[in-house]
Amino acid sequence: MSLRVLIADDEPPARERVRTLLASEPDVEVIAECANGAQALKATQELQPDLLFLDVQMPRLNGFEVLEALPPEQIPAVIFTTAHDEHAIRAFEINALDYLLKPFPEARFKAALQRARAQLCKGSDPVADPRLNALLNHLRVANPGGRILVRSPERILYLRPDEIDHVEAAGNYVVLHVGKESHVVRETTAAMEARLASAGFMRLSRSVIVNLARVREVQPVAPGQYAVLLKNGTRLDMTCSLSELQSRLGAV
């Protein structure tokens, strides 16, 4: 079978190295090369390669963000390439995913390619590979406060935590309130709370997480009961401890 390969790396010499090593493989066809994450995302969706050589650190979208932005059915087999991301290397090893540490020798490259070839020949479905999901989940937990992906039929958006006013639970989803816009993300409230805690967010109640930097004042609404008023005028009921909220606000 012919192996259709896409190379994504922002460094031309790195792309050339992969392309040169693949040139001696008669069953490999390089269908595209991409110089940043946005190009890699678009090319992967349009060309549907069998195998993706994916740099970790790229402009616009990094390698992990490219995978997170892809619908599950469009994720190909992946061999990651990285120069010095020690955290990423630990994540790969934890999840038993293949990666190439630059500058990689030819023998290491050939071994990684052969493993990918064997996976595809066995009919293993990269989409069903739980290791990729485990990797992305590991990175979300290990890097709380990182940009949050919002996918819709019209666009793919990455939000910085400091853009979010508050988060509201909605069943198996959460709604991110950003100015006048609202974005729905498939995530639990507990997971989003853990992800945003280091970015200055706090759980106000069972269903609401607030960006403490957006709080304008705390208002009493009944004996022992309070509400938070945000700078944009939004009023949020709270069930958390007033003293805890005041302490956290004082630290912002």
Question: What can you tell me about this protein's structure?
Answer:
A hairpin with a 2-residue loop joins strand 9 and strand 10 (181-185). The chain is built from 8 helices and 15 strands. Helix 2 runs parallel beside helix 3. The protein folds into 2 domains: 3-141, Response regulator (Rossmann fold, 3-Layer(aba) Sandwich); 149-251, OB fold (Dihydrolipoamide Acetyltransferase, E2P), CATH 2.40.50.1020. The mean pLDDT is 87. Strands 2-1-3-4-5 form a 5-stranded parallel sheet, sandwiched between helices. Strands 10-9-8-12-11 form a 5-stranded antiparallel sheet, covered by helices on one side. A 3-stranded antiparallel sheet has the order 13-14-15, with no helix packed on it. The chain is of the alpha/beta class and 252 residues long. The protein has helices at 12-22, 37-47, 63-69, 86-94, 106-121, 130-142, 189-196, 242-251, and strands at residues 3-8, 28-34, 51-55, 77-82, 99-101, 148-151, 156-159, 166-170, 173-178, 181-185, 201-203, 208-211, 215-222, 225-230, 235-238. The N and C termini lie far apart (58 Å).
Summarize the structure.
With 252 residues, this protein is an alpha/beta fold.
